[in-house]
Write a structure and sequence with these properties.
single chain, 2 domains, two-stranded antiparallel ribbon, globular, cell membrane
Length: about 200
């Protein structure tokens, strides 16, 4: 996306989520009948979210010519669990989706650690150049962080209201991720690779 405008990338990444939030807030106290079936705001928001994510993912692929494995996994799980929620008119399937995604990411990172493979660095090394030890530490921390997010998601959707979960999903999870990345700033500095100019004799 080097040649695209700066707002395009965040719009594509967060657009479907903002749409989900907007539709839910608009219809959270109402029901809409479609083909003889009554749907609440949560299911309507899910119904809007699925094609929106498919569209933005297709646009990202069209612009960049590639998709990250996490993007593909997220899209597949959204289609499967979101589709089940709409088909069965049951929000629980869609609420489970973040838990499964975070546990999947944690498992992938954990397997990478056991195999001594720097899978995280392979994806992020251009944006965040670090030595091998730095990537090992960050991978371990991120795996544990994803497990914590999965637990948090389970606690919220099983014990609190739909509205609380939607707020948590739309704003809480991104804020937690931002705080995690910011909280590891010292690790980035301590294990940063020397700049190319500095490496010259």
């Amino acid at each position: 996306m080097e040649n695209t405008k700066p707002w395009v990338k965040p719009a594509l990444e967060f657009g479907p989520l903002i749409l989900f939030f907007a539709v839910f807030m608009l219809y959270r106290n109402d029901t809409v009948t479609i083909a003889g079936e009554s749907y609440g705001g949560f299911i309507l928001a899910t119904l809007a979210f699925i094609p929106a994510l498919m569209l933005t993912t297709a646009i990202q692929w069209r612009i960049t010519g590639k998709l990250a494995p996490m993007q593909v996994a997220t899209l597949v799980l959204v289609i499967v669990f979101g589709g089940l929620s709409v088909w069965l008119n049951d929000p629980r399937f869609f609420k489970l989706k973040p838990t499964i995604i975070y546990l999947l990411f944690a498992a992938i990172l954990g397997v990478g650690l056991m195999l001594r493979r720097n899978w995280l660095g392979a994806v992020l090394s251009e944006a965040l150049p670090m030595d091998a030890e730095g990537w090992r530490k960050l991978t371990l921390r991120m795996a544990l962080f994803f497990v914590a997010l999965a637990i948090a998601n389970e606690l919220v959707w099983r014990n609190l209201s739909d509205s609380t979960w939607v707020w948590f999903k739309t704003f809480g999870l991104p804020v937690l991720l931002f705080a995690f990345l910011l909280g590891n700033a010292k690790l980035y500095r301590d294990h940063a690779l020397p700049a190319k100019d500095d490496a010259q004799p």
